[in-house]
């Protein structure tokens, strides 16, 4: 399977041969779901906290004697049975993140990338080069490529002009190959990647 490489004027320049592991990759919704869940779990703050009976404010004095009053026995005003008392087994600060095998991450990203190619939403540009960091230049590129939906740009993190040009655009985002994840690949319909970054990405996904 081949994919066309274009320039910033949307003109075909050359074609690239894709590895079979990427070209014929099948969609795996269950694996993609698992990776999205893992990504979102890592983004949780986990700062929730409640106070137990030993932490809430209040006296530890026994309110009345154990027997003879006709009332229910009580040892402390901080008892969970009372209003303003401690919480029993309440949530405590914790880390929700967990790791998954690298092969799973690669397989999920490969699956999403294959869907992008089948839907003709993947655009490989020989070089994404802006003279100055301007949002206007990025908008002109999107207009030239006839992209109106959300677009994810992937290139080297050293391409500062590209990063600064699209950071103010509401429907565009920049990502390096190392920072690329399944959630961004799903969130953004169009996928614009430079030729060097695409070569690096295919080398990773072909494992």
Describe the protein.
- By secondary structure, the chain is of the alpha/beta class.
- Helix content is 33%, strand content 14%.
- The protein has 7 helices and 6 strands.
- Strands 2-1-3-6-4-5 form a 6-stranded mixed sheet.
- Helix 5 links the parallel strand 4 and strand 5 (172-175).
- The radius of gyration is 27 Å and the shape is elongated.
- The mean pLDDT is 90.
Quick take:
With 207 residues, this protein is of the alpha/beta class. It has helices at residues 20-23, 29-42, 102-118, 135-144, 160-166, 182-187, 195-205; strands at residues 2-6, 12-17, 122-125, 151-154, 172-175, 190-194. Strands 2-1-3-6-4-5 form a 6-stranded mixed beta sheet.
Layout: helices, strands, pairs:
Blueprint: E1 2-6, E2 12-17, H1 20-23, H2 29-42, H3 102-118, E3 122-125, H4 135-144, E4 151-154, H5 160-166, E5 172-175, H6 182-187, E6 190-194, H7 195-205
Helix pairs in contact: 4-5
Uncertain residue ranges:
none
Strand order of the largest sheet: 2-1-3-6-4-5
Report the helical percentage. 25-40%
N→C terminal distance: 17 Å
Structural class: alpha/beta
How many strand elements? 6
Strand content: 5-15%
Number of helices: 7
Biggest beta-sheet profile: 6 strands, mixed
The chain-level mean pLDDT equals 90
Radius of gyration: 27 Å
What is the helix/strand order?
Answer: EEHHHEHEHEHEH
**Cα shape:** elongated
